[in-house]
Write a structure and sequence with these properties.
3-stranded mixed beta sheet, NmrA-type_oxidoreductase, alpha/beta, NAD(P)H dehydrogenase (Quinone), NAD(P)-bd_dom, 7-stranded parallel beta sheet, 11 helices
Length: 277
C-alpha cells in the first residue's frame, strides 16, 4: 500500500508521517511531497519536491497511490487554485482514498478563513473519489506559551471557547483515518479541550508563575493592532475575523470525533503547554 502525503515538509505533514511510521506503515510505502524536502530527509521515506502549483508533478506523484493525505495549503487567497490542482491530479490518478485537512464547520460557518476549505470540500465530493474530511480545530501551538509570557494574549474572541489540541493529536488522527477502516465518506469535526483565551492565559500563568493576561479588543481595534505589528491588512482582517467568529462559537466542537480517531483521550491543554515550556 502506497500512501502519499502532500505538504509533508510542514509541521503537520512531518508529524503525520511519524504517526504513520509509528503505526507500522513501512517507510518504503510512504511518499512525502513538499518544497523543502531536506526537512524530512531523515525519515527514510521516498521524498519528492512537488508544489501545489505543479499539477503534472502532483499527477506523477499520485500514480499508483492507494491513499493520499491532502494537507491544505498554507496561503489564504491562493488555496482554491492550488487545491484544484491536487484534486484534479488525484482524480486523474484514480487514488483509492483522499483524506483532506479542512477547517471547523467549513460548510456552515461564516468565518472568512473557512471559505476556501468549503470550496475544496465540494471539489473533493464532486470528484467522485472516495474521501475523508478532517476538519482540524485550532492547535495549542497557535498560542506559543513563551510569547504569551512576554506579551500576553490579545484578541477579539470574548468568551468564545476554542477546542484546542496539540498538532501531534491531529497528525495522529489523520494517520488513523488512513490506516484503519470505516472512515470513507465521513466528515469529522476535530477538537480537544475547549478554553477561552482568558482561561488559556490563566493556565500559562499558572505553569510559569508569571502574570499572563488576555486583552479583549473589538474587531476593528484588533485588526489595526495586527496591521501595526506588520501583517498586511487583508491578512489582518482575516485573522481578526477568526476571533469575531470564535466569539460566536465557530471554534468550539465536541472532542468525540478526535478521540474516536485517536482511540484515547485528546491531550489536555495543560499537558501540551507543559511540553512546550
Amino acid at each position: 500500500m502506497t500512501i502519499v502525503v502532500t505538504g509533508a515538509t510542514g509541521h503537520l505533514g512531518r508529524l503525520a508521517i511519524e504517526s504513520l511510521l509509528a503505526k507500522g506503515v513501512p517507510a518504503g510505502d510512504i511518499v512525502g511531497l513538499g518544497r523543502q524536502v531536506e526537512k524530512i530527509a531523515d525519515l527514510g521515506i521516498t521524498v519528492k519536491k512537488v508544489s501545489y502549483e505543479d499539477q503534472e508533478g502532483l499527477r506523477a506523484a499520485f500514480e499508483n497511490a492507494d491513499k493520499v493525505l491532502f494537507i491544505s495549503a498554507s496561503e489564504p487567497g491562493k488555496r482554491i487554485a492550488q487545491h484544484t490542482n491536487v484534486v484534479e491530479a488525484a482524480k486523474a490518478a484514480n487514488v483509492g482514498l483522499l483524506v483532506y485537512t479542512s477547517a471547523p464547520k467549513a460548510d456552515t460557518t461564516d468565518m472568512k478563513l473557512a471559505g476556501e476549505h468549503a470550496v475544496t470540500e465540494k471539489l473533493i465530493k464532486d470528484s467522485g473519489l472516495p474521501y475523508v474530511i478532517l476538519r482540524n480545530g485550532w492547535y495549542v501551538e497557535n498560542y506559543p506559551a513563551d510569547q504569551a509570557v512576554a506579551q500576553g494574549l490579545v484578541g477579539a474572541s470574548g468568551d468564545g471557547r476554542i477546542s484546542l489540541a496539540p498538532r501531534a493529536d491531529y497528525a495522529e488522527a489523520a494517520a488513523a483515518a488512513l490506516v484503519t477502516e470505516g472512515h470513507e465518506g465521513k466528515t469529522y469535526e476535530l477538537g480537544g479541550e475547549a478554553l477561552t483565551k482568558a482561561e488559556l492565559a490563566a493556565e500559562i500563568s499558572r505553569q510559569t508563575g508569571k502574570p499572563v493576561t488576555y486583552t479583549d479588543l473589538d474587531v476593528d481595534k484588533y485588526t489595526e493592532l495586527l496591521v501595526g505589528v506588520g501583517l498586511p491588512r487583508e491578512a489582518a482582517e482575516v485573522f481578526a475575523d477568526v476571533d469575531r467568529a470564535t466569539a460566536a462559537g465557530a471554534l468550539f466542537v465536541p472532542r468525540d470525533d478526535l478521540e474516536k480517531l485517536l482511540g484515547r483521550p485528546a491531550t489536555p491543554v495543560a499537558t501540551a503547554i507543559k511540553a512546550a515550556l
